[in-house]
């Protein structure tokens, strides 16, 4: 009820086109009020089963013995506790039957049930509301919210804003976001300061402004310090980046701050995967290779045999280590690239 009321109020505030208003007025003239629909459903429920069909009567005759048996079992259980209440026995028997079958199977013959009292008194008021009122509320709620969504899509460019969220937060923008995050990764690789908010926003505006000039003014990025213990792990070095996208009213009802928090969680996950991919791509083991190829300074002092004995055998293990590290790098690249392609596509 609250959601339907909010949707109705929002539709009224949006002041839809006159044609839509005229159509809605015509529909409202033919539509019955919720109170009228509720009364009709209650009356229909009270009258339900007054004229059973031939098929229902056949089923009643076929199951009559079992129903009487169930009632007799309930009565015997009550007699053990010195309770003699036929109505209570019928209600205990109801526990063994489905609600929809109770009216049909207990009708006619030796067992008489007052349907008006059974619908109103024996059942809780909540069940009556569930069957007679809630379906009408749900229908009007769906119609109202559906009209609101159509209005947001048609008149307020909701789909375009959602596509912009996908382009930037889910990185479907391709080259745009690549230019942005590689500039950060380069700073991290060179061990330079990159957490400056001005630097981050300048890089974001330069990357987005080239291909999406309309969205560049809506985007901004901030950085918040997080737990230093997590920062020790390279994968968490990007924690604290928060991307923001400003949307006008009433689209911000759909793309709310809570919604953007969820988008930011996905954005951070994608950044971590791309950071791992970038790190493996630029990893070349240059220091190990230079150590293996470095000339020995003591070769002129020591004899050739002593030099070969001391330094010759040490070069092979270093080269083997480099070879193994390259093999490990290839395996890690295969895993990270597969994960990256799976998530991005």
TrEMBL record:
Domain of life of the native organism: Eukaryota
Biological process per Gene Ontology, one example term: microtubule nucleation
Annotated localization: Cytoplasm, Cytoskeleton, Microtubule organizing center, Centrosome
Gene3D superfamilies linked to this entry: Gamma-tubulin complex, C-terminal domain
GO terms under cellular component: centrosome; microtubule; spindle pole
Keyword Chaperone: no
Domain Gamma tubulin complex component C-terminal as annotated: residue spans: 158-344
InterPro entries attached to this UniProt entry: GCP, GCP_C, GCP_C_sf
Keywords assigned by UniProt, alphabetized: Cytoplasm, Cytoskeleton, Microtubule
GO molecular function: gamma-tubulin binding
Family: Belongs to the TUBGCP family.
Subunit note: Component of the gamma-tubulin ring complex (gTuRC) consisting of TUBGCP2, TUBGCP3, TUBGCP4, TUBGCP5 and TUBGCP6 and gamma-tubulin TUBG1 or TUBG2. TUBGCP2, TUBGCP3, TUBGCP4, TUBGCP5 and TUBGCP6 assemble in a 5:5:2:1:1 stoichiometry; each is associated with a gamma-tubulin, thereby arranging 14 gamma-tubulins in a helical manner. Gamma-tubulin at the first position is blocked by TUBGCP3 at the last position, allowing 13 protafilaments to grow into a microtubule.
Purpose of the protein: Component of the gamma-tubulin ring complex (gTuRC) which mediates microtubule nucleation. The gTuRC regulates the minus-end nucleation of alpha-beta tubulin heterodimers that grow into microtubule protafilaments, a critical step in centrosome duplication and spindle formation.
Name of the protein: Gamma-tubulin complex component
Organism for this UniProt entry: Equus caballus (Horse)
């Amino acid at each position: 009820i609250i959601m339907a009321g909010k949707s109705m109020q929002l539709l009224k505030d949006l002041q839809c086109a006159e044609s839509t208003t005229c159509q809605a007025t015509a529909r409202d003239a033919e539509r019955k009020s919720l109170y009228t629909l509720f009364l009709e459903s209650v009356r229909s429920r009270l009258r339900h089963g007054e004229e059973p069909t031939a098929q229902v009567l056949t089923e009643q005759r076929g199951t009559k013995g079992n129903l009487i048996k169930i009632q007799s079992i309930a009565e015997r259980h009550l007699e053990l506790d010195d309770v003699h209440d036929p109505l209570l026995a019928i209600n205990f028997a109801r526990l063994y039957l489905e609600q929809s079958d109770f009216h049909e199977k207990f009708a006619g013959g030796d067992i008489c049930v007052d349907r008006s009292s059974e619908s109103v008194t024996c059942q809780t008021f909540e069940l009556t509301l569930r069957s007679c009122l809630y379906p009408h509320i749900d229908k009007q709620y769906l119609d109202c919210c559906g009209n609101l969504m159509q209005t947001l899509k048609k008149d307020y460019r909701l789909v375009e804003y959602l596509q912009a969220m996908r382009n930037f937060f889910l990185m479907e923008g391709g080259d745009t976001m690549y230019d942005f995050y590689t500039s950060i990764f380069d700073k991290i690789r060179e061990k330079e300061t990159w957490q400056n908010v001005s630097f981050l926003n300048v890089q974001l505006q330069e990357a987005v402004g080239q291909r999406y000039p309309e969205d560049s003014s809506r985007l901004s990025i901030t950085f918040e310090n997080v737990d230093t213990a997590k920062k020790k792990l390279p994968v968490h070095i990007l924690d604290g980046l928060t991307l923001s996208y400003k949307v006008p009213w009433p689209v911000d009802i759909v793309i709310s701050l809570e919604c953007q928090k969820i988008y930011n969680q996905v954005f951070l996950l994608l950044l971590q995967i791309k950071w791992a991919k970038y790190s493996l791509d630029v990893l070349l083991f240059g220091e190990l290779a230079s150590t293996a190829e470095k000339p020995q300074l003591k070769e002129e002092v020591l004899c050739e045999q002593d030099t070969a004995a001391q330094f010759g055998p040490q070069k092979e293990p270093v080269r083997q280590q480099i070879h193994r590290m390259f093999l490990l790098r290839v395996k890690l690249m295969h895993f990270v690239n597969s994960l990256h392609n799976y998530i991005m596509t």
